[in-house]
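seq:
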Amino acid sequence: MPNDALERLAIAEVVQNWAIWRDAGDWERFRTVWHDDGWMTATWFQGPAETFIEVSRSGFERGVSILHFLGGISVDLNDHRATAQTKMTISQRGLVDGVLVDVVCTGRFFDFFAKRNGRWAIVRRQPIYEKDRMDPVSPSATLTLDATLLDSFPEGYRHLAYLQTKLGFTIKKDLPQLKGDVVADLYAHGRAWLAGAPSAFPGGGPA
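struct:
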């Protein structure tokens, strides 16, 4: 098998392991998908991978229900660096005004990868949020949303943000969506990363 194909398979395996190990609560193996300087961004969290592991573990133990499902993956490779885009859904269950709901958000993981000491791992993970929906778990339940609160969130993840706000999370409102300047900037820096940019973030660090 050509070497490039083997590298792409190794990267795809890391992406798959991220979802399996994180959702299963396999925290020690989950730690291995990140480099030591790894950074995670989500609607409810922005920070070092090690902190993300610990807050995810804490939420898991408290019964926070967030699951991930993966689809196709596309890898751009340049020597010891890569970017990967993976189709995904984020599924979260929780209470909104006493009603148990499921929110499903469709999007992509955009990952900045590096191969260090022979190991591919994630330097930066940035989800792209494309669309979402909210449904009561019980077909007989009635739910009325606060339209003002709902409309205060970006269209690509407004129902996810609504649920997470009701659960007490603070939501970042300028994340990449299907279209727009924010996602265009992300694509541009992905190309810069492949070309040798010193950081996975424009300007050298997260905003």
